């Protein structure tokens, strides 16, 4: 009886939409067995809905981490567009892309307002989420946190040795090296203070990773992307599509041309920023100039229709201003905020399209807002108010999710920057403490130590006061 009721209540369109959502999340796990399971369900439904269709869909959804029923994760809504929204999306995307190319914030706002109208209550709702985890503050002294980091790094012996020799790891995006370099920059003063015998190892790894980045930086200033065909489902398909269109060039295992869709802002933003900060800490002019070269490239790039890509350039330009004092970088960061980031914010504080509404991309945009806030001179009150109007609702959206679901991303350095910019936000301070506790728990049970989080995330624990 129940199976026939399921079949009556479930439309073909709804079943296909739920399968698409499940397939998308399975692909992002980069789990071929999980992808195959969802694809098999899709084939089984081709001839028509079986009587137990809803039951089988729910099994697939549970396997990929979606709440059975298809439109939420851990009780939080997932993007569920109407047919009219989907039909209108290509036209809206074309308009937004053209508006971004105009470099005119007013044109971009006109395009995004039209998108917000069409999306209605689906604006700012993500098309994928990650399960959160409740975490308690874990009091750890500066000395203990430094020791934890050094011990966790020792556990990565072979990889550390390879990177310290300036040899890249296979099939890795350069953003990994940027994270490692940021971690070394954060931890270095504390290692010198509390673990002096490890300074040489930290410095050697810093030099090795920085040299990898400066060697691979392209003459124009951007950073390349690895050729992941046959190694990563999502990126492999993207590269094949771009090669077929003649849009990119692959050389020595790297896509050396800038991504025509604006994606090179990602690796260029994080790598350039990491080199700027490492160059500043270590007094290394070569690294500093490489970071400024990346920032100069970012200045020449038009914004694109992916808001988080533009946010990477905001972060890079903000840091370039802090390091160099050159006003062109601050002006560039503010322009990219006005054209390529702020117009896309939805009323719920997230970014309006389902992709950028995801927490991982929301965090990237928040990082940019924090970096720009940290760079803004105190006398730029009008720009500060402009930034606050975007940042405060965005912070609230993230913290509301944390309260409902637990911590859904690692974002300790980002939260620390935001807490310094907005010191009166008590919830931010609480989130910093809980995030530190979560990261510590991933890296040690009090006896065994491992590198259970991103390098810069663990390094940032040292800056959290018990």
Number of helices: 20
Q: What's the β-strand tally?
A: 5
Determine the oligomeric state from the structure: single chain
Strand order of the largest sheet: 3-5-4
Largest sheet: 3 strands, antiparallel
Structural class: mainly alpha
The CATH architecture of the largest domain: Alpha/alpha barrel
Q: What is the mean pLDDT?
A: 93
CATH class of the largest domain: Mainly Alpha
Number of self-contained structural domains: 3
Strand content: under 5%
CATH topology of the largest domain: Glycosyltransferase
Distance between the termini: 58 Å
* Helix content bin: 55-70%
Shape: globular
Topology diagram in text:
Layout: H1 2-9, H2 12-28, H3 32-44, H4 53-64, E1 72-73, E2 76-77, H5 83-102, H6 105-119, H7 142-154, H8 157-164, H9 174-194, H10 199-216, E3 225-226, H11 233-244, E4 250-251, E5 254-255, H12 264-282, H13 285-300, H14 307-324, H15 327-341, H16 359-375, H17 381-405, H18 412-421, H19 426-443, H20 455-460
Helix pairs in contact: 2-3, 2-4, 3-4, 5-6, 6-15, 7-9, 8-10, 9-10, 9-12, 12-13, 12-14, 13-14, 14-15, 14-16, 15-16, 16-17, 16-18, 18-19
Characteristic terms for this protein:
three-stranded antiparallel β-sheet; 466 residues; disordered N terminus; two-stranded antiparallel sheet; single chain; Glycosyltransferase; mainly alpha
Task: Explain what this protein looks like in three dimensions.
- This protein is mainly α and 466 residues long.
- The chain has 3 domains: 2-70; 84-122, no CATH class; 142-222 and 258-463, Glycosyltransferase, CATH 1.50.10.
- It is 65% helix and 2% strand.
- The chain has 20 helices and 5 strands.
- The protein has helices at 2-9, 12-28, 32-44, 53-64, 83-102, 105-119, 142-154, 157-164, 174-194, 199-216, 233-244, 264-282, 285-300, 307-324, 327-341, 359-375, 381-405, 412-421, 426-443, 455-460, and strands at 72-73, 76-77, 225-226, 250-251, 254-255.
- The strands form 2 sheets. Strands 3-5-4 form a 3-stranded antiparallel β-sheet, with no helix packed on it. It has a two-stranded antiparallel sheet with strand order 1-2.
- Helix 16 crosses helix 18 (412-421).
- The longest helix is centred in the last third of the chain and has 25 residues, at 381-405.
- The chain is globular and about 70 Å long.
- The relative contact order is 0.11.
């Amino acid at each position: 009886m129940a199976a026939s009721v399921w079949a009556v209540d479930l439309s073909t369109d709804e079943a296909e939409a739920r399968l698409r959502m499940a397939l998308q999340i399975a692909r992002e796990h980069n789990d071929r067995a999980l992808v195959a399971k969802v694809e098999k369900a899709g084939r089984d439904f081709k001839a028509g809905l079986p009587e137990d269709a809803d039951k089988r869909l729910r099994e697939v959804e549970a396997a990929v981490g979606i709440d059975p029923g298809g439109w939420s994760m851990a009780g939080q809504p997932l993007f569920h567009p109407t047919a009219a929204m989907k039909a209108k999306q290509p036209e809206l995307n074309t308009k937004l892309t053209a508006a971004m190319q105009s470099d005119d914030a007013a044109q971009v706002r006109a395009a995004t307002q039209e998108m917000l109208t069409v999306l209605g209550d689906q604006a700012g709702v993500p098309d994928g989420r990650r399960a959160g985890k409740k975490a308690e503050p874990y009091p750890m002294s500066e000395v203990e946190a430094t020791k934890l980091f050094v011990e966790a790094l020792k556990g990565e012996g072979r990889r550390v040795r390879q990177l310290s020799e300036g040899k890249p790891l296979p099939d890795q995006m350069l953003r990994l090296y940027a994270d490692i370099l940021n971690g070394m920059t954060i931890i270095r003063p504390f290692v010198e203070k509390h673990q002096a015998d490890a300074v040489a190892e930290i410095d050697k790894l810093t030099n090795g990773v920085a040299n990898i980045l400066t060697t691979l930086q392209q003459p124009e200033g951007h950073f390349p992307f690895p050729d992941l065909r046959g190694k990563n489902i999502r990126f492999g398909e993207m590269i094949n599509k771009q090669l077929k269109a003649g849009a990119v060039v692959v050389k020595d295992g790297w896509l050396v041309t800038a991504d025509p869709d604006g994606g090179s802002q990602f690796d260029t933003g994080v790598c350039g920023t990491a080199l700027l900060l490492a160059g500043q800490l270590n007094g290394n002019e070569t690294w500093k100039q490489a970071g400024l070269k990346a920032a100069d490239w970012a200045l020449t790039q038009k914004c694109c229709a992916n808001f988080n890509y533009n946010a990477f350039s905001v972060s890079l330009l903000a840091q370039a201003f802090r390091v160099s004092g050159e006003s062109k970088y601050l002006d560039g960061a503010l322009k990219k905020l006005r054209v390529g980031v702020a117009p896309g914010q939805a009323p719920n504080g997230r970014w309006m399209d389902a992709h950028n509404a995801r927490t991982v991309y929301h965090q990237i945009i928040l990082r940019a807002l924090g970096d720009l806030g940290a760079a803004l001179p105190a006398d730029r009150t009008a720009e500060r108010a402009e930034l606050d109007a975007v940042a405060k609702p965005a912070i609230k959206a993230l913290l509301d999710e944390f309260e409902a679901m637990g911590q859904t991303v690692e974002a300790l350095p980002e939260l620390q920057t935001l807490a310094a910019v907005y010191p009166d936000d008590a919830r931010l301070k609480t989130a910093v403490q809980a995030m530190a506790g979560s990261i510590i728990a991933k890296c040690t049970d009090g006896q065994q130590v491992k590198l259970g989080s991103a390098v810069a995330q663990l390094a940032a624990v040292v800056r959290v006061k018990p």
